[in-house]
């Protein structure tokens, strides 16, 4: 019987053995599209878990050691400005790759959920997980989504991590390539349409967008 390891908003993750995990969607979603993206970017040297099999709701992949970037930020082993810069660098590396499907040079693989809980600081470096939303599109949309996700926490006065998130957004925006502000409206619309967003989170979207538009 696999051992439960973690529970995300949409998936349960089980340890299969010391080297592999099973990630299973609870909502019946199919993993084949994200497994293809992971295999594609992994083959080009981008840090993702090795995919062993993808079948229906189940993805079997390399088990990563180390904390998530969020855990490292919360425990204080990672400075938020550094975390923001690391996230920006992961975007830069991802967007440097040619798209898998599109022939339009402005279109790249985009993750669209590249926040500190979806980065694991493993012994082989920062590795990006949770490719459910991955698709192809403008890199600015990807960076706008990351900035927006962090800004939603930064502008929430009730959130314990608000200050950490604000420092993370500043570090991220200062280091990001392109201009996330160009895709901010589209990112707000995408985020607003996310069924996993709570009503409180949705209410903070305009303030979060304003923080990115004028971060100082
Ligand atoms: N390959 C892996 N190795 C070790 N732990 C993992 C791995 N993949 C995921 N995890 C753990 O499981 C958690 C949830 O994974 P993931 O983000 O893929 O699920 P999710 O349900 O899509 O999450 P979200 O809540 O972001 O929607 C991660 O934060 C991490 O702690
Ligand atoms: Mg996740």
From TrEMBL:
InterPro entries: AGP_Transferase, Aminoglycoside_PTrfase, Kinase-like_dom_sf. It comes from the Bacteria. Residues 97-168 form the Aminoglycoside phosphotransferase domain. Transmembrane segments: none annotated. SUPFAM superfamilies: Protein kinase-like (PK-like) (SSF56112). PANTHER family: AMINOGLYCOSIDE PHOSPHOTRANSFERASE DOMAIN-CONTAINING PROTEIN-RELATED (PTHR21310:SF40), AMINOGLYCOSIDE PHOSPHOTRANSFERASE-RELATED-RELATED (PTHR21310). This is Aminoglycoside phosphotransferase domain-containing protein.
